[in-house]
Amino acid sequence: MACQILPTISGPADLRRLPARKLTRLAEEIRAFLVDEVSRTGGHLGPNLGVVELTLALHRVFDSPRDPIIFDTGHQSYVHKLVTGRQDFSRLRERGGLAGYPQREESPHDIVESSHASSSLSWADGISRAFSLSGQADRRVVAVVGDGALTGGMTWEALNNISDDNARRLIIVVNDNGRSYAPTIGGVARFLNTVRTQRSYRMLQRQSDEAFGRFGGALGRSVYRGIRGGVHGFLSRFTNTDELYSNLDIKYLGPVDGHDLGALEHTLRQARDYGAPVIVHAITQKGRGYQPAIDDAADQFHAVGQIDPITGEPVSAAAGQSWTGVFADEIVQLATQDPRIVGITAAMLRPVGLAKFAAAFPDRVLDVGIAEQHAVTSAAGLAFGGMHPVVAIYATFANRAFDQILMDVGLHRAGVTFVLDRAGITGPDGPSHHGMWDLALLQSVPHIRIAAPRDAARLREELREAVAVDDAPTVVRFSKGSVGRELVASARLRDGVDVLRWGSRRDVLFVGVGPMVELAIEVAERLEAQGIGATVVDPRWVVPVPATVLELASSHRLVVTIEDGIVVGGVGTRIRQDLRAAAIDTTVTELGLPDAFIPHGSRAQILAEAGLTPQRIARDVVAQVLGIRVPHARPERGVESERARDAERAPDAATRSV
Fold first, then answer.
1. pTM of the model
2. InterPro entries from the xrefs (predicted)?
């Protein structure tokens, strides 16, 4: 379908000027555009197909950005981008192209960048209070909350506080499609599902649509809107839609058909003019208008790679077995052998590899919804009760539950295993999804043990070792994407340290963390070609630092650590501190990611910008070994070298023999 109306929309004002009769055509164009563009680049397709009419209605009723619109989560913001002047999707989620989530640098219409769910109502609460305190009480704040976000505790903390002050213009739109990533779980979801599926509601809605349709398009919609309040009051006798919110003292409007533009605009105007917090319950369909998405029972094309826009089939085969796939198979084997193992995830059963476990042992896998804090403390309780929980989440979402990992699991020496998927650089999803803080955060938990497998065989080994620990938390972290080639050790030393190659001389000791071991080997081979001996080890368990690593460091002239987490407070820092505590004065150079919010881009781009390439590392190490300081005004971003820091404080120290 050729887009005729969409190119004329450069901002919300254009949308508001558009005659209502053209909105249906515009919605069709937007869906066709999304399918065509996202099928080329990959991205969150299903959620955006489901919010087309809702987004159009929001921007016609409210005055963005004066009336801030906050999306929770941000993956449902593609349509919002289209109608706020961003229609070049050719490089979606690529460096230099549009971000996959709201981004302030792109537009003043984007308010909240973080795509971690369940935070929008707290943002809205704070913004609306600021408007009230600063004499801007006429400004509205809108939070669009996916129904999955209602499973997160922050949502209910915010609702409790929002209901405490009814003098603000705050509108909460519940985008209820019955799903977060997969079907939404829990009591709130069951209540909303009752509203969505109750026969009395569906029957009366269908009959009213048919009856008023006989008056003709425009007249029928007008009559329907005119009496809709009475219809809602009648339906409420059967559906009890106010039950969930009655004790919160927040006005409830709905349920409203999230694909009926007229009904949506009418209801949103009521909410806009109410003068106090309002909840608008909009029922939508994820994947709306695209049959392959609707037919996908698993996640309705929540997130896709490059696909055939006609069939929805992937256009290229997977590059190899994924880290997630290796874990998915191994955890089933372990659960078969040990009935104490229980899987826990936070609304991401398939993405983190627990679907096979759930199919084999449905009573031993718990999906708690988007509630990582609850997942962790519940896991501590399971461990106390004699089970061994395996909490499988994305590394970035472990940040949300740090206090629970520290105080509920760590303090109580609970035998809980955390499996952190998408650790390190994740690429196109941007700063809120990079799993780069876990090593620095989690190593501060007393008694914790952290493993970073370099390949599939090590993932299986280390996962088995992790679930055997019942008196302390354990962590197994791995990257996004395909597993690299298997790297066979030439020797396994005590403490389980693998030596991947011995140097011809004891010049440099490389300590690689997980997938960075392969990079360390490439650098070592370059150094050997220049007559510099380089040994490469994989500690396997990077925290606590194995004693063998310290012993090897003492016999080498330089230690170089390479990790795909932030270099500040990372594994390299831990090794340097342990060396100093052991009175070993070997120089340590720590390589890793900068303590910055890294924008979306390919993994290769981001690692290169951080200086984590074979060429760059080899050049810098040669300079260090030869006692030549690399002529930079300051250490390159992402590279923290103890030698460089010493040189800045005392230039003579930079040239001392290593």
1. 0.85
2. Dxylulose-5-P_synthase, THDP-binding, Transketo_C/PFOR_II, Transketolase-like_Pyr-bd, Transketolase_BS, Transketolase_C, Transketolase_CS
